[in-house]
């Protein structure tokens, strides 16, 4: 995949219809340079081509399913205001697209920034169904002369289902032996990452997208100053940093000014790692370097990539600094709180011998009716969280509530938590409650983490890392009616049940939202009910 620097034009074309066709199917590929394997690609190829759009465009994504299982597509970070049914989370906001069938997603792109688009059914993103989605700003607040996109992926030699079979096998030790994926940058082995070509004294925007399923990525540009200007599609004040630590699902943009002289070339550095997997030389972490070229044959200013990248701390939301230190460029004041909801991350060994992950002591299992369709069809009963099923993990929120999620992580693993349909203000980090830690069978740390709070204008984003033994507080305003899936973006944890669902203002949804008939047809073709509670029954009858 060639992602050349793009010249920025302040006056972009008027809003348009952007048609993109995806035939989702199996492919045989050697992406890491070491082994062939079955994967999931688009139009017979991997990587999936990035989608570039302009603010105000409407994306018509025509999807044909050539797999032997259902598929669905989620535009990660797109708010889907007024079109919750296009969010793409299977059995949350739609039925999956059946094998051999087709469906067109219609997505109005009113936001700007760095996003990505991926499969959201049967963990298909882990096997390749993922691509950057870049929405250019008609009037960007920062000027730059060109841009680069670096899309990071972790790539395993086995398909995701094979790895999960081992993880969930009650006859085998848990956790299973660690796997050590290869790093891909823009779809190829990171050892062969693309050259960034800089013109002297020019300014570049570098967009960083972590599309991985398990691994974090570190990024640094020694010899250059980086200013963070975006996190998860939200502009920030310029924030100087030496490097970034990027969790699965997260995105950043940095501005970099090229040197006035073009006599020397430099490197950019990338590390793939997982702090919860044992360190093993050459496997975890893996280090990579790409070229920043001013002149083709200019001398190279080398960098000790291992030494420099190892200095960047792990398990924090932004290397050297915390994302809570970013300030949103919009200057929105911190939201008040009318309701606090505690989200407790956990895990447990079940009676069938399988270890599963939990949110508030519930391991998520999809309902028999998409949650959105239940919210629209249950009438006044839609405010009864129990009717969405005991394992849909639904929390009902009233219209116009100011919500604070207190996300407690009493485990020794970091968790990147993504919330669909809304951004949230990052308000505070601090030590997880001792009571919560003890309730999960763990021991509180001798030295608890410090409390870190926002300064003046809290940053907004859609994916937050909750560090080990810590909490995070985030806030949003329930201005619209929608169903939002919240989950850990480590794909193994999502498969193991680390998810919850927010049903926001179902009364408003019932008055304002109409599901396209073509979406109901996806359900009918599979015999899936389109009305009723999680059991597929009317009213409060949860039998079956």
Structure commentary:
With 544 residues, the chain is mostly beta strands. 9% of the residues lie in helices and 36% in strands. It has helices at residues 160-167, 305-311, 371-377, 434-439, 491-495, 506-512, 517-524; strands spanning 17-29, 37-42, 51-54, 58-65, 73-76, 102-108, 113-119, 130-136, 146-155, 182-185, 188-189, 196-197, 203-210, 216-220, 226-231, 234-241, 243-246, 251-257, 266-273, 286-293, 339-349, 355-359, 394-397, 402-409, 415-419, 424-431, 452-453, 460-461, 463-466, 470-477, 482-488, 499-504. The strands form 6 sheets. It has a 7-stranded mixed β-sheet with strand order 11-10-9-13-18-15-16, with no helix packed on it. Strands 21, 22, 24, 26, 27, 28 and 30 form a 7-stranded mixed β-sheet that branches. Strands 12-20-19-14-17 form a 5-stranded mixed β-sheet, with helices on one face. The chain is globular and about 75 Å long. 49% of the residues are buried.
Sum up the structure in keywords.
544 residues, mainly beta, 7-stranded mixed β-sheet, 7 helices, globular, disordered N terminus
């Amino acid at each position: 995949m060639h992602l050349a620097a793009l010249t920025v034009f302040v006056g972009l074309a008027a809003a348009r219809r952007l048609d993109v066709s995806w035939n989702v199917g199996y492919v045989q590929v050697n992406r890491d340079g070491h082994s062939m394997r079955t994967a999931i690609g688009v139009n017979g190829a991997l990587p999936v081509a990035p989608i570039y759009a302009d603010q105000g465009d409407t994306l018509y994504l025509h999807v044909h399913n050539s797999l032997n299982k259902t598929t669905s597509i989620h535009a990660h970070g797109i708010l889907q205001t007024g079109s919750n049914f296009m969010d793409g989370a299977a059995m949350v906001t739609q039925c999956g697209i059946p094998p051999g069938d087709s469906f067109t997603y219609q997505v109005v792109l009113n936001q700007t920034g760095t996003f990505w688009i991926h499969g959201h059914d049967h963990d298909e993103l882990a096997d390749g169904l993922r691509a950057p989605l870049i929405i250019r700003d008609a009037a960007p607040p920062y000027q730059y002369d060109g841009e680069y996109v670096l899309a990071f992926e972790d790539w395993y030699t086995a398909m995701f289902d094979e790895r999960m079979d081992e993880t969930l096998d009650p006859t085998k030790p848990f956790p299973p032996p660690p796997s050590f994926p290869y790093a891909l940058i823009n779809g190829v082995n990171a050892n062969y990452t693309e050259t960034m070509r800089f013109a002297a004294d020019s300014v570049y925007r570098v967009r960083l997208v972590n599309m991985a399923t398990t691994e974090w990525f570190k990024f640094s540009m020694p010899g250059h100053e980086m200013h963070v200007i975006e996190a998860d599609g939200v502009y920030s004040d310029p924030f100087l940093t030496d490097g970034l630590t990027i969790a699965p699902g997260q995105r950043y943009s940095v501005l970099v000014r090229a040197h006035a002289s073009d006599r020397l070339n430099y490197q950019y550095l990338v590390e793939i790692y997982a702090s919860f997997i044992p360190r093993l030389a050459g496997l975890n972490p893996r280090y990579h370097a790409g070229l920043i070229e001013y002149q083709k044959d200019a001398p190279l200013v080398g960098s000790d990539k291992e030494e420099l990248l190892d200095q960047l701390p792990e398990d924090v939301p932004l290397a050297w600094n915390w994302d809570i230190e970013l300030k949103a460029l919009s200057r929105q004041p911190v939201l008040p709180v009318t309701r606090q909801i505690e989200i407790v991350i956990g895990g447990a060994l079940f009676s069938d011998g399988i270890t599963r992950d939990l949110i508030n002591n519930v391991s998520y299992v999809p309902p028999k009716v998409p949650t959105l369709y239940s919210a629209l069809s249950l009438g006044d009963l839609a405010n009864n969280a129990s009717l969405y099923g005991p394992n849909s993990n639904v929390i009902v929120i009233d219209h116009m509530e100011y919500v604070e999620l207190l996300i407690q992580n009493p485990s020794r693993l970091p968790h990147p938590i993504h919330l669909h349909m809304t951004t949230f203000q990052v308000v505070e980090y601090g030590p997880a409650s001792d009571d919560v830690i003890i309730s999960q069978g763990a021991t509180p740390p001798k030295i608890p983490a410090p409390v870190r709070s926002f300064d003046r204008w809290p940053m907004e984003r859609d994916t937050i890392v909750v560090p080990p033994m810590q909490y995070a507080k985030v806030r949003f305003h329930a201005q619209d009616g929608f169903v939002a899936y919240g989950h850990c973006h480590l794909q193994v944890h999502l498969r193991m049940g680390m998810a919850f669902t927010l049903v926001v203002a179902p009364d408003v949804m019932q008055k304002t939202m109409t599901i396209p008939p073509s979406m109901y047809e996806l359900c009918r073709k599979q015999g899936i009910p389109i009305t009723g509670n999680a059991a597929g029954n009317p009213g409060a009858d949860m039998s079956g």
